[in-house]
Amino acid sequence: MKVNELSKITGTHIETIRSYRNKGLLKPKKLANGYYNYGISDFISLAYIRKMRGYSISLDNISEIYSTDEPGKIIELIEAEQQVLRTRLARMEEEIRYLELEKIHVRESWRTGDFMVQTVQSLDDKIDIYPEDLVSDPGFRSLLEISHMMTPTVRISKEVLNGSCEDRIIPIRTGVGTYRYVLSEKGIPLPEGHNVIPNGIHISQMITLKDLSEISLKQLQPMMDEAKKNGTPFISDTTGYLMHVEKRSDDLVYHFRIRACIETNDIISAKP
Length: 272
Known about the structure:
By secondary structure, the protein is α+β, with helices and mostly antiparallel strands. Helix content is 40%, strand content 25%. The protein folds into two domains: 3-67, Orthogonal Bundle (Multidrug-efflux Transporter Regulator, Chain: A, Domain 2), CATH 1.10.1660; 114-264, Multidrug-efflux Transporter 1 Regulator Bmrr, Chain A (Alpha-Beta Barrel). It has helices at 3-10, 14-22, 40-54, 59-66, 71-112, 138-144, 158-161, 180-186, 221-230; strands at 29-30, 36-37, 117-121, 126-129, 151-155, 169-171, 173-179, 195-197, 200-209, 214-216, 238-248, 251-264. The strands form four sheets. It has a four-stranded antiparallel beta sheet, with helices on both faces. A four-stranded antiparallel beta sheet has the order 5-7-4-8. The longest helix has 42 residues, at 71-112.
């Protein structure tokens, strides 16, 4: 049969069949006119290749299987692919857990709204980094390797939070952060110049930013007033969680849930 016929009955793209032929995985007869005649043996070989590719086994490994008559070697190649799939599955399960945490954060943040405060217990020390040079900073690059386990953060100093709430604009820093246990589990050292937000009781509120370099101090009044009312000054700078990026006309608006520690403790909540 012609290559297009084999393609039709197997659902395999013509170019894919040709690539298998070029790798020596199919052995059709070459006719005098230069065309190839594919027979039942090519159909069987193609069915086997499709099965192995369905298991995500690479063409290079399939070629190795073709090149050996040792069952042990075939088993070794299959077991190697099983390990790749287990690693991939673990990553997918991890992402599912963090998506569940993302849902919880969004739900809680949405209920809070701007100008409302909450007193919350954190689950671990937060490790934030505010790089000066996004390109060359090694600490920032190491956090990018676990992007699904980190969040954009906002840093406002505890000195500002414990000061008077005047009607003025103050500078802020934005960066990224994750929990200490995440870095420990992944074997990633603490980034140089990192900022620690200790585990403990925090005062939290939502803020909305258009400019990520500054904020009106009046936006922080709810959490500042809450700390003063309770006589619990802030003992840490803020960290943050970016709940949502919203497009308004031609601008982007950033909705952050920020928090700052007022009391440390050793309570560790269930990890996601």
